[in-house]
Amino acid sequence: MALSSTINKVSLNIADMDRHYYQNHELIVAQHPSETDFRFMMRLVAFMLNASESLRFTKGIDSDDEPDLWQKSLSDEIELWIDLGQPDEKRIRKACGRAKQVIIYTYHQRKAKVWWQQQQQKCQRFSNLSVFHIHAEDLDSMAQRSMQLQCNIQDGEIYLTDDNSNFTITVDRLK
Fold first, then answer.
1. CA distance 71 to 133
2. What is the pLDDT of residues 50-90, one digit of tens each?
3. Helix (H) or strand (E) holding 29
4. What is the domain partition of the chain in residue ranges?
5. What predicted TM-score, i.e. pTM, was given to this entire model?
6. Of all residues in the chain, what percent are helix, strand and coil, respectively (each to 5)?
7. I need a surface site. Which of 1, 72, 133, 136 has the fewest CB within 10 A?
8. What count of other Cβ atoms lies within 10 Å of the Cβ of residue 74?
């Protein structure tokens, strides 16, 4: 019997001083059985950094045709494609061809560094691609099935709090 996804409910209050975006989001996010708590939290961080009323979580790990998050226009064009991890060149090329803007967030320092050294030259040709590295060690300790999070973003740093813990997350731009 196949394992089913875990359903997580997240009440997320975002105060993004860099983009002047202030909103509360009530999210229901599925976590695939093979997805770690850390990767799940990285998807939430990617949402926080790009939050809008039309940004949506997708099937993610379950689908090769969809990113982890995307934002579509009313005419169903992909405005923003967000992937996590270290996608291969074929996936990057596909994303850049389908979306107006593509963002990749890497998150494991050593793996990301090796991946970026291999992909950096290849990625230079995509003008609609941005690549960032997220520094957020031990963030998986915050993951729960029901969360109430306060996110403050200022000067490129994320300050994330819940009832029990505080995290400062930094994001480095690679491209």
1. 21
2. 999 999 998 766 567 789 999 999 999 999 999 999 998 99
3. strand 21-31
4. 6-173
5. 0.91
6. 25, 40, 30
7. 1
8. 6
